[in-house]
Write a structure and sequence with these properties.
Length: about 400
């Protein structure tokens, strides 16, 4: 079973990987498919928020249509996959480990207790007085919701005045009905962390018996300094010195072990500065959006196929990434409103080294930037001989795109 939230970009790539492997797939989604009853045993609607209810639904389904393994393709299904796999006695990460990846406070407490580099942090109720809190803090700080993903609600405050504004803004975000339901009881708390300066990298890995195999390290050449933390460009292989890359890998492995993660994909975000490598986030899933399309292994095998081969216990061919450099730009949303038109796609696709330009929000659709938004305008993919060439191609292609938002 693939657990695929309805808002996920990942479904086509995972389904294609399953087709290549000849794997029989059931799709579990957070919304009922209109044709679900016409394809019994192929699609099922599940509760991704109430984990106990979702596990009961999945168990009832498995009583009629037995399952061999459950794979969550995004954050939204990670907890349900672990809980249901435990109930059905299928391979899985410990539920407590996955819970820690889905609760930023538990994550921070666990990593700090394990002696990993960590900022100071405070857990406060949404009803706290921001003026009183600000008087106790050393700025800058970063405010975070405990359970939202994709940088939603993550904001930096540099002084008492901006802290009060950011605190109230995050409170409004957490009170949005969809966010409140997604967060559940965690919507009542806010995490405050000391700001960690430095460059940021991303690690894509696969755990087997607790052993981490690194699949790729991505550089993030655009500075992520706030006030919001919208990610744009990922490029691999990393241009960092080998000893720094070794530190990144070692820290990621220590973080996964501290959390208790032992099996399946892991995606980590780390900040690097003179004090060391700081784990910012660890997730029990692979890289999000369409970013996985930057990764080709062995004889053109996708990341999704690597994940499914691992999940079903099939032999893994070479997981060495192709020798060429690759990168993706997650196209940022410049303003809120309705997407009226997109121009320059053909010109952007004609830029040398650019493989594709995908606009993922339809014309006429609402666009909402971070920190409230949950989507990007789309994705630009490029591949070349060096990371610098790839980065340059992504920026050139983006400059040719024009979005009319009104």
């Amino acid at each position: 079973m693939l657990l695929i939230p309805s808002a996920s970009y990942r479904a086509p790539d995972f389904m294609e990987a399953a087709r290549r492997l000849g794997v029989e797939v059931v799709v579990g989604s957070d919304r009922r498919h209109p044709l679900q009853d016409l394809h019994p045993g192929r699609q099922v609607a599940l509760d991704f928020v109430d984990i106990e209810a979702g596990t009961n639904q999945l168990e009832a389904f498995a009583d009629e249509f037995p399952l061999d393994t459950i794979v969550a393709v995004d954050d939204g299904g990670a907890l349900l996959a672990a809980a249901a796999s435990r109930r059905l006695e299928l391979p899985h990460n410990p539920l407590a480990a996955v819970e820690a990846t889905r609760n930023k406070l538990l994550l921070r407490r666990t990593l700090a207790a394990a002696g990993l580099p960590s900022p100071r942090f405070w857990d406060v109720p949404v009803g706290a007085d921001p003026a009183s809190l600000a008087a106790q803090l050393a700025f800058p700080v970063v405010l975070k919701p405990l359970a939202l993903s994709g940088s939603r609600g993550v904001m930096r405050a540099d002084d008492a005045e901006s802290f009060r504004e950011v605190f109230d803004r995050l409170k409004r975000i957490l009170r949005e009905p969809a966010n409140a339901r997604e967060c559940g009881p965690l919507a009542d708390r806010i995490l405050i962390e000391g700001y960690v300066p430095g460059i940021e990298v991303s690690v894509e890995g696969l755990l087997a018996g607790g052993r981490l195999q690194v699949l790729a390290i991505f550089d993030k050449p655009d500075p992520l300094e706030g006030p919001f933390f919208e990610e744009t460009i990922y490029v691999t292989p990393s241009r960092l010195p080998s000893d720094v890359q070794d530190l990144v890998v070692e820290t990621t492995a220590r973080a996964a072990a501290a959390l208790g993660l032992r099996d399946g994909p892991v995606h980590a975000e780390l900040r690097l500065n003179d004090a060391g490598a700081f784990p910012i986030d660890i997730a029990a899933r692979s890289i999000g959006g369409l970013c996985s399309r930057t990764l080709h292994f062995g004889a053109g095998i996708s990341l999704e196929e690597i994940i499914l081969r691992h999940a079903i216990g099939a032999d893994l061919p070479s997981v060495s990434r192709e020798s060429r450099s690759a990168g993706v730009m997650m196209i940022p949303i410049p303003a809120a409103g309705t997407l009226r038109a997109v121009r320059g796609i053909a010109e952007a696709e004609a830029v040398p080294l650019v493989e594709s330009v995908t606009i993922s929000i339809h014309v006429g659709g609402e666009v909402v930037p971070l920190p409230e938004g949950t989507e990007y305008l789309g994705f630009i993919m490029a591949r070349g001989e060096t990371p610098a060439e790839v980065e340059s191609a992504l920026r050139e292609a983006h400059a040719k795109l024009h979005f009319e938002i009104g």
